[in-house]
Amino acid sequence: MTASPETANDMTWSEKLASIAATLPAAQAEKLGSLDMPAERPGRGGGWRSPIADHELAHLPADRTPPREDDPKAVRRVGVIGGGTAGYLTALALRAKMPWLEVTLVESSKIPVIGVGEATTPPLMAFLHHYIGIDPHDFLERVQPTWKLGILFDWGPFKDGIMGPFDWGSNSIGVLGSMATRNDPNAYTLQSLFMMANKVPVFQVDDKIVSMMSDIPFAYHLENMRLVNYLSQFVTERGIKHIDAEIEDVTLSGEDWVESLRLKGGGELNFDLYIDCTGFRSVLLGKALQTPYISFADSLYTDTAITAYVDQSEAIEPYTRATTMDAGWCWKIPVPDEDHIGYVHSAAHIDPDSAMDEIKRLYPSAREFKTVRFRTGRHEKIWRGNVIAMGNSYAFVEPLESSSLLMLAFSIMSLIPLLPNSWAEPTAREVFNKLTAERWDGMRWFLAIHYKYNQRRDTEFWRQVRDNADVSGIQPLLDVYAGGAPLHLRDPLTRRFVRATAPTFYELDGVDCMLLGQGYPAKLVTTNEPLEAWQRRKDAADALVARSMTQRQALEAFHKHPELTESLVYGRHSWVTGYGEQRWLQQSRA
Fold first, then answer.
1. 346-349 own/partner pairs: CB under 8 Å, 24+ apart
2. Residue 570, Cβ neighbours under 10 Å: how many?
3. What are the pLDDT digits (tens) for 341-377?
4. Is the dihedral of CA 516, 518, 523, 528 positive or negative?
5. CA 89: distance to chain centroid?
6. pLDDT in the model for residue 65
């Protein structure tokens, strides 16, 4: 029987809990009353906050209009140079938000796309379905995403590793209680308990399916080739001109102005604005304009990934798994029929054959190996003259926190409101350059602490990283943390000072998660709440998790009942809708 989205899934958190409690024995039903999420609970920190610091979905001002017809310096013709996810998403966003632009996408079918699993973060859902208007039902059927509740790090000193859930800002069960009872932080949110149980918050309640996916932020796991092929269909459908060509040369007019592009085989293209989406090649920003490059190699030592496919067990794990390896780490991303893996490592610390042998020891079914080399760092500027870079053309850190599509989406959403109508107007170049550089630098320091304080293995790579990795940009935060952890439970003024002094792309809760999980030495803050109160919440959460579905069961339910997806993406109580309306991502200031 198909459940009505109005009665079954466009309900509040409390209404959903009540419907589930009605099916439980009285003792278990009573426990669920302790889960008053996502309400703020004094003394345990924030309540329901974004895991991403200081960012919001940017909508155009209501008075944004096309350029004047008689303006000879108007920005009307935009060339998006390069395809893949960066090129397609940039072009689609420009058409969605500035439909008067003539957008042309130039890519070469001779340059292959890296077809590996893509782990994402929650903001991408709102970006896809609200910002650029991709139908979520069609996306579910054709791209076949799986769900990601967070990252399970096989990392640090604790046997179970580190649960890095997306609801870390809620502290819904309680981190101090988890540390007191388990000596690790893993039982501190409801989502982390779902992760440990390999379950997702979807329930069979009598003849209805009740989904709490709209109440707890999650992300997509995607197969990259399937995503790219899907996005490519919208290019011509949405009025974007598509040219299959290779760039042979770039003609400059002055030191930072592109005049035209010369194509292999003949022909020339010129635009008012060029968006460089050529990936690591950085054809315009890097090669043509010779924009200086700032390396992150003294903080992030990895430079190579060996990717492969492995057989999947019956369970579709609701998280990305990150496993410590001898010279780096290995991701595992579940898609519907197989798992995609990648050994991210330092080529200076392990040779290719030894790296593949290590993969096969961990995953004997590994096959179809590919090697991808990369550098970590960013260019000095993302916007020079009439060239703006997106994605890897500007910067890359590494895959550890699934940051690539997140950073791309935020760059696109930050840029579009700042684009000038005319080159005769003052521009926001320096504002955008500073904003973007700070975001990437914040990501650098956040990732560096994942390496610097990981005690999981004692190899030459890890000894060198622990001894030498540069974390200077986040050191002031570490000093404050040592005097009282977790940071998100410190007083408001201290939190404000820490954010201002050592900004991190992810909120303080994310830093707390990694430092607590790695056993970084610190004095824990105290609480007046009795441990029994924490235990009641934990028991209630355990009872809820026990009633939930596996991901495979839940995905089947969503395919059968389209109203579940409708309520998730557009429901009035959904976190996705909150993102789309700029509510959920707005960072409340203490």
1. 346/301, 346/302, 346/303, 346/304, 346/461, 347/303, 347/304, 347/373, 348/301, 348/303, 349/301, 349/459, 349/460, 349/461, 349/464
2. 17
3. 999 999 999 999 999 999 999 999 999 999 999 999 9
4. positive
5. 15
6. 81
